[in-house]
Task: inverse folding
C-alpha cells in the first residue's frame, strides 16, 4: 500500500492479523522492505507486521529537498504510518543501519514503543570490509554444518532512485545516537552474530541500556536477518514470549 507523508510517498507492506501485536520493521542500508519477506512468513501467526521503505529508498519516493533526509523525518513518517493504521504503540525490529534509525525513533517517540529488537547493532563507524569478511566466514561455517543458505528475497535491494538512496542513508551522520541511547528505557533485545564485527559495538550498547539483553548468534555474520531469517525470527518470538510471561 502507499501512504502519503509530507512530500513523500511511502511503500508499506502489511502481513498478518491486525488484532495481533503490531511490530514495525526498519530495513538495513541498501535494503528495502523486501529484506523481511522470509521473516514475515515466520512471524505472521504471532504479529501484525508492518514493513516500509524509508523515503527515497526502495519504492518510496520523496520530494526534491535534501533537508528531508533525517532520522527525525523518518520517525515522523513512521508515525504517519501508525496513525493511518490507527495504532498508538508498536514493537520494533531493525537490522544494521536500520537499527540506527530505530534507536532514533525509540528516543524521539518512546511513548510509541513497547519493546525493541536491534539486530547487528552498532552506532560507531561501520567497517564494511570486516563485515563482508565475517559474513563469508559465517557462510563457510554454516556450509560445514550442512545448513543450506537462504535465497535473498526478490527485490531486497531494488530501488527506484539510487541517488536518493545515498542521500537517505546519510541521515545516520546527522543524529546524536550516543545521546539518544540514554533515553531508551523499554525492554530491548540486541541480537548480533559472532562473525559480525558489530558484535563489539553491540556489547557496548548493552552496557549503556537500562533494560536490555544480548543474544549472540552462533556462526552468523553481518546481515543476520538475510542470512538466518529462521534463527533471528526464533529469537524474536522467544523474546516476546518472555515479555508476556514477565507481564503476567
Result:
Amino acid at each position: 500500500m502507499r501512504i502519503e507523508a509530507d512530500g513523500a510517498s511511502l511503500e508499506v507492506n502489511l502481513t498478518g492479523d491486525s488484532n495481533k501485536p503490531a511490530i514495525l520493521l526498519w530495513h538495513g542500508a541498501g535494503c528495502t522492505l523486501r529484506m523481511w519477506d522470509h521473516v514475515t512468513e515466520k512471524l505472521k501467526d504471532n504479529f501484525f507486521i508492518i514493513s516500509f521503505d524509508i523515503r527515497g529508498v526502495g519504492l518510496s519516493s520523496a520530494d526534491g529537498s535534501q533537508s528531508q533526509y533525517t532520522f527525525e523525518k523518518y520517525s515522523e513518517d513512521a508515525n504517519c504510518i501508525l496513525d493511518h493504521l490507527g495504532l498508538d504503540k508498536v514493537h520494533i525490529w531493525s537490522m544494521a543501519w536500520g537499527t540506527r534509525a530505530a534507536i532514533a525513533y525509540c528516543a524521539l517517540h518512546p511513548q510509541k514503543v513497547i519493546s525493541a529488537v536491534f539486530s547487528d547493532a552498532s552506532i560507531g563507524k561501520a567497517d564494511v570490509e570486516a563485515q563482508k569478511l565475517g559474513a563469508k566466514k559465517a557462510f563457510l561455517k554454516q556450509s560445514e554444518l550442512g545448513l543450506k543458505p537462504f535465497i535473498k528475497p526478490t527485490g531486497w535491494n531494488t530501488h527506484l532512485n539510487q541517488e536518493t538512496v545515498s542521500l537517505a542513508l546519510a541521515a545516520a551522520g546527522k543524529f546524536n545516537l550516543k545521546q539518544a541511547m540514554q533515553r531508551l528505557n523499554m525492554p530491548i533485545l540486541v541480537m548480533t552474530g559472532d562473525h559480525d564485527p558489530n558484535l563489539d559495538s553491540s556489547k557496548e550498547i548493552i552496557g549503556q541500556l537500562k533494560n536490555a539483553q544480548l543474544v549472540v548468534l552462533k556462526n552468523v555474520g553481518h546481515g543476520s536477518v538475510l542470512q538466518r531469517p529462521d534463527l533471528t525470527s526464533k529469537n524474536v518470538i522467544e523474546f516476546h514470549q518472555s515479555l508476556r510471561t514477565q507481564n503476567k
Remarks:
- The first helix runs from residue 37 to 43.
